[in-house]
Automatic annotation (TrEMBL):
Residues 93-136 form the Flagellar basal-body/hook protein C-terminal domain. Belongs to the flagella basal body rod proteins family. It comes from Thiorhodococcus minor. Keywords: Bacterial flagellum, Cell projection, Cilium, Flagellum. GO terms for cellular component: bacterial-type flagellum basal body, rod. The lineage of its organism: Bacteria, Pseudomonadati, Pseudomonadota, Gammaproteobacteria, Chromatiales. This is Flagellar basal-body rod protein FlgC. PROSITE patterns: FLAGELLA_BB_ROD (PS00588).
Length: 139
């Protein structure tokens, strides 16, 4: 029985982690075309760092919850774009745009969404198994 509760804990932690990942990807997509007058002021894409957590109550490691350990800025340099009429353009007529690949971010969003859905399904199936187990005890 504790294995089922451990499974709920693991799936719940994964749901939380994937939710953070989805929000981070959404932020990256929302800022993909923003401009800044200097490279230092340009938006830096964010990436979520995950870590599995050893459950002390589960020494076999069958269910290992995941947690977000941080959100880090990308090391990719923003790229200059010559747009002399842009209000953010510097003296040379350049603006700096973040090095964000919309295609990669969309793939990341699809992956996070599918992971989220898979964990919802695990929790739903576990709940059904638990209900059936309780029904057997009632017979």
């Amino acid at each position: 029985m504790s294995d089922l509760f451990s499974l709920f804990n693991t799936s719940a932690s994964a749901l939380t982690a994937q939710s953070v990942r989805l929000n981070t990807v959404a932020s990256n997509l929302a800022n993909a075309s923003t401009a800044a007058p200097t490279p230092e002021e340009a938006y830096k894409a964010k990436q979520v760092l995950f870590q599995t957590v050893l459950d002390q109550e589960d020494p076999d490691g069958a269910a290992m919850p995941v947690r977000v350990t941080g959100i880090v800025d990308s090391e990719a340099e923003p790229f200059p774009a010559y747009e002399p009429n842009h209000p953010q353009a510097n003296e040379e007529g350049y603006v700096f745009r973040p090095a964000i690949s919309v295609v990669e971010e969309m793939a990341n969003m699809m992956s996070a969404s599918r992971s989220y859905e898979a964990n919802v399904e695990v929790m739903s199936t576990s709940r059904q198994l638990l209900q059936r187990t309780l029904q057997i005890g009632q017979s």
